Amino acid sequence: MARRIDVNGTDGVRLAAWEFGDPQKPVRGDGGAEDAPAAAASPGVLLLHGLMGRASHWASTARWLSERHRAVALDQRGHGQSEKPPRAAFTREAYVEDAEAALEQLGLAPVVLVGHAMGALTGWQLAARRPDLVRGLIICDMRASALGAASQREWADWFRSWPLPFATLADVRKWFGEDDPWVERPSTARGEFYAEVMHESADGWRPVFDPDQMLETRETWVYDAHWDDLSSVRCPTLVVRGLDGELGRAEAQEMVRVLPHGEYAEVPDAGHLVHYDQPAAWRTAIEPFLDRLD
Predict the structure, then answer these.
(1) CA 233 to CA 217: how far, in whole Å?
(2) Which H/E stretch holds residue 280?
(3) Which of 15, 169, 191, 263 lies 20 to 30 Å (CA to CA) from residue 53?
(4) Is this structure's pTM higher than 0.85?
(5) Which residues pair with 139 in a beta bridge?
(6) Are residues 195 and 232 located together in one domain of the fold?
(7) Which of residues 215, 240, 260 is at a domain's end?
(8) Is 61 contained in some domain?
(9) What is the pLDDT of residues 65-103, one digit of tens each?
(10) 265, 128: one domain
(11) How many CA atoms lie within 13 Å of 257's alpha carbon, on the beta-carbon side?
(12) Domain hosting residue 202, numbered range
């Protein structure tokens, strides 16, 4: 089970955070930052999903994390049940400041940040900016190199190819899990992943996010390389890739080399959605790193 806690993001955007584990555990933010109780003794973990994701995608990971940690997953702005402000608010700065605000309001710091794709970039940018808040970082399948204009155009074309609205959730699962012509590695897990980010509207099933906002968000990082921010991360950091994911082995190992305290792990038979594709293997890859931090 998870319970929702509202967090005030930057620019007044209301964010939904989800606490997993013991519902009696004291959590800052229940009654506002001004009357928050003292932080619990359990070390905090903040889970940050990728573009188009949502906090529920971390449920499997958060359940076992909650046995030893305060595990909180954040619906980032424009995603899940968090507010979806105008496009002008979808900046890299806003995402990083939202995560910073969540850490402070929930009393999670010093925290372990676990980020997938865009969430991983947010994690290492926050760790570089506020080393006092972050004691460890896990980067899941996110590249530090610039992806460029061609990549952004491909994503725009991909969004336009979606056969919206979907008549049923079964159609969502089938299209993303089997029929999507833009993807080299279709899978049942991928179909389930996208079924979680759909909601029923008057004419069928549509995404809970605005695809234009997602493109706006992505545009804030694809044209730039992020090696400088990565090299400024001082906490222990684990870089994880799926063998069939978007982060290649050579780039992942260069990221480890650039990090002052970097480590490397691979998850076999996994694509970009590493933690969702292979939850047991993902746990095997990251749990020893967490044990050493504790």
Answers:
(1) 23
(2) helix 279-293
(3) 263
(4) yes
(5) 115, 239
(6) no
(7) 215
(8) yes
(9) 999 999 999 999 999 999 999 878 999 999 999 999 999
(10) yes
(11) 6
(12) 149-215
